[in-house]
Amino acid sequence: MRRLGRGTAVLLILAASGVVLLCALPTWSRAELQTATGWVELATTGMSGSPAVWAGALVGAAAALFTALAGRIGTIVAGAATLLAGVVVVVGALGALRDPGGLLMSEATVQAGTTSPTLRDAAATAWPIGALVAGVLLAALAVIVVVSSRRWTVAGRRFERQGAAPHGDGAAAGSAAPSEPPAAGDRTGSASAEADALRDRFVDDWDVIGRGEDPTGDDR
To answer: Which residue blocks in 99-126 are alpha helix, DSSP H?
Structure first.
């Protein structure tokens, strides 16, 4: 089985989910409904007649976005969600193709004013077929994502190891570098001695002032 890159898999899942949504917008089923005034034409879209189909498409799109950000375990969860979305779309599309009149029953009941409306010449359009193909693609992509995610994880760990190598080299170079820290210590000790001398001078000045003498005098 061919393994896909993460970005390619995400784009394909988004594309398949988008196709399902686009296929759900037009009319999926047409029929004639018997009413008190005669036969009237009745039609429904995939959004209205089979809401589970477009709901599955939304789940697939959300799973694609999660796949783009998730780790190994999260990718498996996203793959399972994508598989579920594909199955839901396939089942909904097959139901519309097998029983186009079933998609119209809810609206037919309202328009006819009876719980047992009479329909004739019920037929499905070609749009459920497009959704069916996209649903199968979603299910296939779910399996490919789970299989390919193993390589994604390995690639991430390899990058981490390569990124950690310079730190090790830097540590080794640091251990072999000339002894600069002692020089810094000497500078610190010198600064401390100067601070002590300055403090002693301040104390002496205060003593001179206490005796009423000028601390800046020439006799000092």
So the answer is: 105-112
> Identity (one letter) of the amino acid at 185?
G
Q: How confident is the model at residue 215 (pLDDT cuts 50, 70, 90)?
A: low
Q: Nearest Cα to 70, choosing from 152, 168, 161?
A: 152
Return phi, psi of residue 179, to 5°.
-80, 75
The DSSP symbol for 114 reads S
- Asked if residue 219 is part of any domain, the answer here is no
Element (H, E) at 120: strand 119-124
* 123 and 198 in a common domain: no
* HEC sequence for 56-85: HHHHHHHHHHHHHHCCHHHHHHHHHHHHHH
Average pLDDT over residues 132-137: 96
Same domain as 135, residue 92: yes
Q: Residue 127: how many CB atoms within 10 A of its CB?
A: 20
Task: Fill in the amino acid letter for 218.
Answer: D
* Residue range of the domain that includes 200: 185-213
